[in-house]
Design a protein that fits this description.
alpha+beta, 7 strands, 245 residues, 51% helix, Heat Shock Protein 90, 5-stranded mixed beta sheet
Amino acid sequence: MSILARKEVKRMAEDQMRLQGLRTALVTMGTMTHQLANFLRGFSASVTSLREAVALKRVQVDADAQETLENMHLATGELEKLLEPMKTLTIVHSKSPCNLWEVIERARSLFQIDLEQRKTAFEILPGARSEELMIRVPTDVAILAISNLISNALDALVEGGRITLEVVERAHEVLCHVVDDGPGLPASMRSNLFELGVTTKETSGGWGLYLTRRSLIENQAKIELVRPGPGGTQFTIYFPKAGGD
């Protein structure tokens, strides 16, 4: 191999490492942004309730404490505004394919501690036979989608319960079914579940499924609510298969 060829191979390898590092950082940022947004909304609601109690003289505080309360209210509002562009920033628009099995393992590992602490069973059914199942969706988008579904399933299960993930391989697409045995979704929100702001969580902004659906559509994939309950829910993600045009 010539010196120029060696340099080119080295350059391509370094570019790949940088890109992978960027994707990993963005996935981590996306997960942390989601958790921080939920925390901030809960914290902001508590601050708002306390401010109202002080205003109605249900709680007595001195001037310094009241000033601190007002500063906390302003600070949480500014942080919530800052999070909005970060949600969009965490989507990478590369079309590079990825191995779905690796994506599933990485998504599962994010929730390993939660699964163990809440005694929730997580089962991956061997529906597909390919050891390397390549999908035409960026790694970060696929992890975002599957992680959101696992997170929502965990929230639906108070303690215990089961989450099942099944992969079905077709000629031109790969289906990923995520099923839980929780109570199901309220009838009032089933038709608009993927709209911004729709959520079953008191401390959530309702952007998880919205962002998931949008990022999948941008990569010629889609997500559907197949079974809303009662008796559990099932979501299915349809990934385009790499080389399956």
